Amino acid sequence: MSTTTMKVRTMAVAAVLGLAIAFSGCTAGTVEPPTKPAPQADVSTPAPEPEPEPEPEPEPGSLESPLPVGYVATMLDGLGNEVYEVSVRLVDGNANKAIAQANRFNDPPPPGMKYVIVEFTFTSLSEDQPVRPGVESFSYQLATPDGKVYKSAIVVSPGEGLSGAPDLYKGQSFTGQEVYIAPEGADTLFITAVGEYFSL
User: Fold this and answer.
1) Is 67 part of any domain?
2) I need a surface site. Which of 9, 117, 171, 175 has the fewest CB within 10 A?
3) Is residue 185 in a domain?
4) What is the pLDDT of residues 124-178, one digit of tens each?
5) How many CA atoms lie within 13 A of 172 on its CB side?
6) How many domains does the chain have?
7) Its pTM surpasses 0.90
């Protein structure tokens, strides 16, 4: 074998060994998967809490905001026509004695209750029909702050009652009393009709 042939073989073997080593070095290492970045804490500013809606003001004439003492209300019929004006006034908030003295046949109030005398003034505004205070009075009840209502009592009042009122034509007025029963401890009282509350 010539020297040239041996050198060629030696170079070939060396090249094969080099490729093997290089290939071995490429496959022997472990390829690490890319790491995901750690989640970041949310440091954004939270949205402000919405402002609470203000409570609506109570309607005048409601139980929460009754009409003032001495208020003159104009009452309408179903068509919106003015029928009469009315005002109310507390005459006696604890009228047991006055009712007993007004008529000996008047019964005392039930246990835990008391008599209350209220004065009404009606003025007719009607063009067509007369106003009858004795009939209209059935629409009015006594009320307490808790919303409970009390009808008129069947007793003789010390003053002129609404039951004997005449028919009122436009411009005519009449003032008369109505007696109610209320709880003994009720100091704040109202008159109510058609959803309106009048302070006494």
Assistant:
1) no
2) 171
3) yes
4) 999 989 999 999 999 999 999 999 999 999 999 999 999 999 999 999 999 999 9
5) 14
6) 1
7) no
